[in-house]
Write a structure and sequence with these properties.
Radius of gyration: 32 Å
Strand content: 35-45%
Number of helices: 3
Oligomer: single chain
Number of strands: 10
Length: 222
């Protein structure tokens, strides 16, 4: 038995939409890691800009507790003393349980006591986030390049033209033609006999760039 791959008039050409779909499926991890890396890089920049490593720790007093913008987060009004002067400020969207008149840790900038934080961030923290962002983007780029290489390899391995002349006259040869329709976003598949009668058909019901696609199969023989 011989099987020949063909798509209409001996030409086997995959449409741009299906090439794009195949590339998107193969590069799925990149679409997660590259944006994640970009977010981490931006966050690391903020950590570098707003370091609180040299902030001075003091104890403040909670003056008000109101609901924040998200569930289980609160805006905490506080007072604290820095360099003998009392300040009022607010921690926004802080998770946890707080009560008025409770003590709370406050870290303030010695150069600008009105600038506060509820914890310390250091250069090490910023460098860790920066490294994670670079690694995430690098992995995403690697997966993208790998997906592109795989797509190119599949294209090179697909015959551009096959000739069917003379095959039917060979004794003892049973021919089947596997035909791929790649001109739509839901490509189908056909298996035909030597006279190009359809034996089996696979019609795509659902296309997907990442997850599995679904097909309906029909046996035209029976």
């Amino acid at each position: 038995m011989k099987c020949f791959l063909n798509k209409g008039k001996g030409k086997n050409i995959m449409s741009f939409e299906n090439k794009l779909g195949r590339f998107m499926r193969d590069s799925g991890p990149a679409r997660f890691f590259v944006p994640l890396g970009a977010v981490l890089l931006i966050f690391s920049i903020f950590l570098f800009m707003f370091q609180s490593e040299n902030y001075i720790e003091t104890v403040g007093k909670i003056t008000s507790v109101t609901e924040g913008m998200e569930a289980n987060q609160y805006d905490i009004g506080i007072t604290y003393t820095a360099d003998g002067k009392e300040y009022e400020n607010t921690f926004l969207n802080i998770a946890g349980k707080y009560n008025v008149n409770d003590d709370i840790k406050v870290f303030y900038d010695p150069q600008d006591p009105g600038r506060i934080s509820n914890g310390r961030t250091t250069v090490v923290h910023a460098l860790i986030v920066l490294a994670a962002g670079i690694a995430s983007i690098g992995f995403g780029i690697f997966k993208t390049v790998k997906a592109f290489g795989k797509s190119q390899a599949l294209d090179r391995g697909r015959p551009e033209h096959v000739s069917f002349d003379g095959f039917k006259t060979n004794p003892g040869v049973t021919e089947y033609y596997f035909r791929y329709d790649g001109n739509t976003l839901k490509p189908g598949y056909l298996i035909e006999d030597a006279n190009r009668n359809v034996l089996f058909e696979g019609t795509m019901l659902k296309n997907a760039l990442v997850n599995a696609r679904s097909y309906a199969f029909r046996n035209h023989v029976s």
